[in-house]
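Hi X.,

You mentioned you wanted examples for the new student's onboarding notes, showing what a folding record looks like when two proteins sit in one file. Here is a clean example. The first protein comes first, with its sequence line followed by its structure tokens.
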Amino acid sequence: MSSLSSQTSSKSGGFRLSFSQHLSLLSLFLSLPFSIGRGVFALENRQRTWRRAIHDSVLRTLTSRKWDDVRVIAHGLDELEEGAALHWIGPRRYDRVILYFHGGGFSLPPSPGHLELLHAMKKDSKAYGGTGVVLLEYSLTPDHPFPTQLRQANAALTHLLVKGAKPSDIILSGDSAGGTLALQLFAHILKPLPSIPPPPALSAPLRGAALISPWTTYGVDSPSFSRNDRLDGLSKDFYQFLGDVVLHGVPKDELAWAQPLSADFAGLDKVVTHVLNIAGEAEGLLDPVNDIALKLERAGVDVKTMIEAGGMHEDMINNFSAGEGNRSESYRWLTKWLAEVYQ
């Protein structure tokens, strides 16, 4: 399996731990065995396997802390003009292609779970004729604030079209912040953001968009954030922390592009035909995910929303990280939807 190589930088503006942060890391890792022992017997893990219970307990412990940014440098295969890169999973293919935007709060690089998911998508696409799968490596916040990522997603879509892909053969997909990026790109196509290059002209609507736990608002006012705070892998405070990082310095007149729930999607049916919207019953983002589904439906798009029982934020990615990706109900939904949309 191929993977993205990464490194951290100790140069000014890069990643450097203070003495207090070193102590915080030490205390965190010393606490992990206790967190795992407590977590595997927790009420919220009663329906999960041992492996998922351990994985989720570690995740809850790690994301209960606030982290400084880590600058990650990956080495791409197709360099884009906007400082980003496209990583193909297997051979390039433009007659059918899934353009994937990874999650991580715009602050973290792709995880092993993301790469496992993409390889599974590539392999399982053979059942419906096969498809190209390509991952966008975008620049990370806070070193590269909004609209950097939207600029790079726009360049990625333009690149595929220039290479011969037809809009009707392209599906955008992404989890969490990656789902945000797909929705930001739709907003840009409908009404171009003046501070970045214009969107490509579409001769037809894109085939579809598969959104996995899309991060549609950077606030935490929706009831599901409080209701699921102890059940989700990410705490309410951590959602707010990541949201504050993204919104820092964003002008008010650009919020409609930065935050999907603030965007006007009128006319979206001319941009994309089908949307799959996946969320977990136990994630903080559940209400906003349902809200964006209603907004897209009102714009005339065929939207299918799937809520996984007991699922947390990015449950599909977590399953792949724990080595149980193919057992994920949400992944089966995704595979079935892709087959239906491409047939």
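Then the second protein repeats the pattern, sequence line and then tokens:
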Amino acid sequence: MRPTPPTNLKQLAQRANDLAGWTLADIASDYGIQMPENLKREKGWVGQLLEYALGADAQSRPEPDFTQLGVEMKTIPIDQSGAPLETTYICVAPRTGQAGVDWHRSLVYKKLAHVLWVPIEGERKIPLAERRVGTPLLWQPSQEEEAMLRADWEELMELLTFGQPITARHGEYLQLRPKAADGSVKTKAFDINGKPIQAQPKGFYLKKSFTQLILNRAFITGPI
């Protein structure tokens, strides 16, 4: 039976802590969920498994995973030293209809206002079934961290809105990258002259340097 959504932060934190040390196979077996052989075609499977086990209820809606609590859950694949192995997907970057939307009304802000970070062993040499869940962390950005993210978001949204070229080098901690199964997928956008075009969808991602900062402050220098 699918767990009901947690009703408070204490309950969510307890559920997440209870999974620490479990392998992905343990969790999947406990809930009768079939594991894929690998993540090549099911890249989001680990996150979906933990969302199920913890009682997330947002599903595909554009809001935080735990809707009653306003908490988003993000997994972080890490190596043996605790370093993030990849960037963290946040949400799709809207290409139209963003006139007048400021930072505090953006989906990026809503997704990052309160996050349950769950580290996962992610090195390829460890079979998927044997990868363990690490110690979770409930996190809210400090004023300094929010200012860094806001500055990147404002820069990237300006480039996106006016059809300017964007690369992964734009943004110090937040970046825009293609978000589609392949290059044939297109969405409505505008070019540099304001004319409607069909362009590749993009998504917002946190760079590894930012998630490393979060992990360092939580587990090396103490909670933020």
